[in-house]
Design goal:
174 residues, five-stranded mixed β-sheet, 5 helices
């Protein structure tokens, strides 16, 4: 019987070591996904907002707009699809025009990472620029955009610029 206990403890030890290794691997790869949104301080450059509008050939239309910038082959955009969809519906309910834009080589110079959002008020003024949200999945519930949209609908311009956050972003190396 003593050998049975040694055998059981050896098996349990192997299972415990395997479990620790699997959990450590998962944590490592999840944390590897966390990237800073604007480590090169693109959004802090002088005249950034005017350059952004210029790259889009933006024409002010007397209506508030939510511009969503995504990248087709970005895994983080794929993860954020449901958030993008609910954000679009939320903005539409708040009487905002929603414009979805694919990242272009020109936009890479003014957008540090995707998925990103820029909110422009009805007068063509800056309201918000930054990521959709923060965290591993960049999912609903950790979003900054909803707050800026709600504030704008209530008549407040947030002038909110989010650069120092980490999440699932595809960083643009312009």
């Amino acid at each position: 019987m003593p050998s049975l206990n040694k055998s059981n403890s050896f098996v349990f030890s192997l299972i415990a070591i395997w479990l620790v290794c699997v959990v450590a691997g998962l944590v490592y790869f999840q944390l590897e996904q966390l990237k800073p949104f604007d480590s090169s301080k693109v959004l802090l450059q002088k005249h950034w907002f005017n350059n952004f509008k210029k790259q889009l050939d933006w024409v002010d239309t007397n209506e508030a707009s939510l511009v969503l910038i995504t990248e087709k082959n970005c895994g983080c955009t794929i993860q954020a699809k449901s958030h993008i969809s609910s954000l679009s519906s939320f903005a539409a309910i708040k009487a905002m025009k929603v414009v979805q834009v694919e990242l272009t080589p020109k936009l890479k110079h003014v957008i540090p990472a995707t998925p990103a959002a820029v909110i422009i008020n009805k007068n063509g003024e800056f309201v918000y620029a930054g990521p959709l949200s923060e965290g591993l999945a960049c999912a609903q519930g950790s979003g900054f955009v909803e707050t800026a949209v709600t504030n704008l609908a209530a008549g407040f311009n947030s002038n909110l610029l989010i650069t120092q956050t980490k999440g699932c972003y595809c960083v643009n190396n312009a």
